[in-house]
Amino acid sequence: MTTVAVIDYGMGNIRSVSKALEYVGGDAQIEVSYDPERILRADHVVFPGVGALRDCMSELQRLELDDVIGECARTRPFLGICLGMQALMDFSEENGGTPGLGIVPGRVARFPGGAPGAEPLKIPHMGWNRVHQARPHALWEGIAQDDYFYFVHSYYVAPRDAAVTAATTDYGVSFAAALARGNIFAVQFHPEKSQQAGLKLLANFLAWDGGA
Amino acid sequence: MTGLVKRVIPCLDVDKGRVVKGVRFVDIVDAGDPVEIARAYDAQGADELVFLDITASSEGRATMVHVVEQVAAQVFIPLTVGGGIREVTDIRRMLNAGADKVAINTAAIAHPDFVRVAAERFGSQCIVVAIDAKRVAGPGDAPAWEIFTHGGRKPTGIDAVDWARRMAALGAGEILLTSMDRDGTRDGYDLELTAAVGAAVGVPVIASGGVGELRHLAEGILEGRADAVLAASIFHYGEHTVQDAKRYLAGRGIPVRL
């Protein structure tokens, strides 16, 4: 039986994530936890979150989860969602500059808010937008190219190595909607709120062995 | 360049855990069951759902938490809950139950700083400020709108456009804008109001109040410049499904998720 840990560091809609995993999980055991030992025992790890990166990083350090996440991201199927994707990077522009976990090289930038002269784009980027799969991956199995997913964010991820970009989305800029590297998959959108496409992605994650 | 689509949002008024007035579209066994109705709207392709708790008593309001829990276990689109959100603990309770956003209305007027505190604690993305506005300008004057509370009975003296700007500056991630003049009339949104607020804030605006026909939804987006359109009765009474509405909008050249 697969065990799945959803890392709970007190930020965001953790319950939405665990409920969606339970819905698609069959007999998988879904556990919401901030206990390093329990998280390290899980077969699959989900790192969700919404909000500000600075708060996220200080909570992770307080709960001694920063090294735990690093360990999980090296060793087992790992899914970062929204802030849980941004936190994997080296550095964010948020709050005048905030260091991330440095697991994936790259930075987190604020949306420019539209091209010069064009109608300004609303920030946060909130709602359903198309996700263009940049390459095949086990987590895209059964999901249509350019299908819609639900986004809510004001910052986006710019990986240093473009080869890790697994999908792009357009919002004034073309940004990385998903990253994939080895056993790590990370998404800027909310699969737990993206109806059938999102549930399919979560089901794919639970079935994934972490291979590319 | 953006692929972001306009959202269509059915709204359900809930009293003591039951949907008020019920719904009359097909395939519903219990017309007052919020979970069953939410599932039906989800199946029709609703982009989000808004639940407004109109329960007067605090005991009754506890049942709303159970409603949200049950809906969130079965419906995987964003859920906003409004009504009776007055303190940080109210927000936490709803988010823990599975809501994604809360709509703050009266409490923001009583204590504007509540919006800032809430946005700092939970993130702007889950703080919606709901504004109920009425036209107050006299004939020949420039259009102006004032915020009213208590179902449109109590004036506050606050200018609605200024208020929206202030709420966005304090951290509101979205504005849910209802025209009290149009609500229940089926005459369409107050498009001038919607456009004025949309031009004043950099966050998304949800138009609300007055939809009686599908063309009103298109007008809210094309003329009111709304980012999302909310409606209740046209969906509840089975006149149109959410999917009908989205097909209609697509036919008017508006990007939607079909």
Strand and helix layout:
The complex is a heterodimer of chains A (212) and B (258).
Chain A: E1 3-7, H1 14-24, E2 29-33, H2 36-41, E3 44-47, H3 53-62, H4 66-75, E4 78-81, H5 83-86, E5 91-92, E6 98-99, E7 106-110, E8 125-133, E9 147-153, E10 155-159, E11 165-171, E12 173-181, E13 184-187, H6 195-207
Parallel strand pairs in A: 1-2, 1-3, 3-4, 4-13, 5-7
Antiparallel strand pairs in A: 5-6, 7-10, 8-9, 8-11, 11-12, 12-13
Helix pairs in contact in A: 1-6
Chain B: E1 7-15, E2 18-19, H1 34-44, E3 49-53, H2 58-72, E4 79-82, H3 88-97, E5 101-104, H4 106-110, H5 113-122, E6 127-135, E7 145-149, E8 154-159, H6 160-170, E9 174-179, H7 191-200, E10 205-208, H8 214-222, E11 228-231, H9 233-236, H10 242-251
Parallel strand pairs in B: 1-3, 1-11, 3-4, 4-5, 5-6, 6-9, 9-10, 10-11
Antiparallel strand pairs in B: 1-2, 6-7, 7-8
Largest sheet of chain B: 8 strands, parallel, barrel
User: Largest interface, per-chain counts?
Assistant: A-B, 42 and 33 residues
- Please tell me the CATH architecture of chain A by its name: 3-Layer(aba) Sandwich
CATH topology of chain A: Rossmann fold
Radius of gyration of chain B: 17 Å
Number of strands of chain A: 13
Shape, per Cα inertia axes of chain B: globular
In short:
With 212 residues, chain A is α/β, with parallel strands linked by helices.
Defining key terms:
heterodimer; A: 212 residues; alpha/beta; Rossmann fold; 4-stranded mixed beta sheet; 13 strands; B: 258 residues; 8-stranded parallel beta barrel; 11 strands; 37% helix
Write up this protein.
- The complex is a heterodimer of chains A (212) and B (258).
- Chain A has 212 residues and is α/β, with parallel strands linked by helices.
- Chain A has a single domain, classed as Rossmann fold (3-Layer(aba) Sandwich), CATH 3.40.50.
- Chain A is built from 6 helices and 13 strands.
- Chain A has helices at 14-24, 36-41, 53-62, 66-75, 83-86, 195-207; strands spanning 3-7, 29-33, 44-47, 78-81, 91-92, 98-99, 106-110, 125-133, 147-153, 155-159, 165-171, 173-181, 184-187.
- A 9-stranded mixed β-sheet of chain A has the order 2-1-3-4-13-12-11-8-9, sandwiched between helices.
- The radius of gyration of chain A is 16 Å and the shape is globular.
- Chain B is α/β, with parallel strands linked by helices.
- Helix content of chain B is 37%, strand content 22%.
- Chain B contains 10 helices and 11 strands.
- Chain B has an 8-stranded parallel beta barrel with strand order 1-3-4-5-6-9-10-11, surrounded by 8 helices.
- The longest helix of chain B is centred in the N-terminal third of the chain and has 15 residues, at 58-72.
- The A-B interface holds A 11-13, 15-16, 19-20, 22-23, 50-52, 113, 120-130, 148, 150-154, 169-172, 174, 190, 192-195, 198-199 and B 1-7, 42, 47, 72-74, 76-78, 95-98, 100, 122-126, 173-174, 202-204, 227-228, 257.
